[in-house]
Amino acid sequence: MSDETTAGGGAGEDGGRRVRVVLVDDHRMFRTGVQAEIGQTEETGVEVVGEADDVDQAVTVITATRPEVVLLDVHLPGGGGVEVLRRCAPLMGAAERPVRFLALSVSDAAEDVIGVIRGGARGYVTKNITGADLVDSIFRVQDGDAVFSPRLAGFVLDAFASTDAPPVDEDLDRLTQREREVLRLIARGYAYKEVAKQLYISVKTVESHVSAVLRKLQLSNRHELTRWATARRLV
């Protein structure tokens, strides 16, 4: 086995690959599902060494465990995945045993993908990925590769190939990550109940987010919101 193959998590007694992973997601049931899917270490080579459900806890757990790879949700209480990346920048830049990040999110929006990649993540995959493909993506990120779900790679290529980056949208920047996610689904025509199911939140929470979005953007109703989002290519 080559040195490159055994880098990072190294090899176990059976000669297989090993990688230590931290799961960061604010939905406990989703973390449990991922753990069940990929955490059978003897079969997958993945050892889940920690979990976190918000930004502060994520930084604490990542700093304490120093995993090879962090599976990072984009939308988290306390500032989102981008804030985790910002606060963990010294670990990502470490000369020895750098911590690498792979975004794992329900969102397939271009601004979310580009935001975390600019923040330092090595890849971005959506939550409909299979367990086997997720394990493969984790090992590829451990090796320093960039990994994307096929549709999302185009966002990154377009963003970084462009010589004139798009201007900062001050209106959009007023919204939290969760508000942006609700905004996109509402603009796509989802009913409140459908948004709640998609994001694992209550209908009342959806209503609260929509009210906040309308207030911040100075819009009157969901029809104006849809036109606003469409004009910015958010849907």
Question: Which descriptors apply to this entry?
Answer:
235 residues, alpha/beta, Arc Repressor Mutant, subunit A, globular, WalR-like, phosphoprotein, DNA-binding, CheY-like_superfamily
Q: How would you describe the shape?
A: globular
Uncertain stretches: 1-15
Q: Would you tell me the overall average pLDDT?
A: 84
Helix content, binned percent: 40-55%
Alpha carbon gyration radius: 19 Å
Q: Regarding CATH, which class of the largest domain?
A: Alpha Beta
Order the strands across the largest sheet as they lie in space: 2-1-3-4-5-6
Name the assembly state: single chain
Main sheet overview:
6 strands, parallel
CATH superfamily of the largest domain: Response regulator
End-to-end separation: 47 Å
Structural domain tally? 2
β-sheet strand percentage:
5-15%
Order of helices and strands: EHHEHEHHEHEHEHHHHHH
Domain HTH luxR-type: 168-233
Domain Response regulatory: 20-142
GO molecular function: DNA binding
Protein name: Response regulator transcription factor
Write a structural description.
This protein is α/β, with parallel strands linked by helices and 235 residues long. It has two domains: 19-160, Response regulator (Rossmann fold, 3-Layer(aba) Sandwich); 170-231, Winged helix-like DNA-binding domain superfamily/Winged helix DNA-binding domain (Arc Repressor Mutant, subunit A, Orthogonal Bundle), CATH 1.10.10. 51% of the residues lie in helices and 12% in strands. The protein is built from 13 helices and six strands. It has a six-stranded parallel β-sheet with strand order 2-1-3-4-5-6, sandwiched between helices. It is globular, with a radius of gyration of 19 Å. It starts with 18 loop residues before the first strand and ends with a helix. Mean pLDDT is 84; it is low at 1-15.
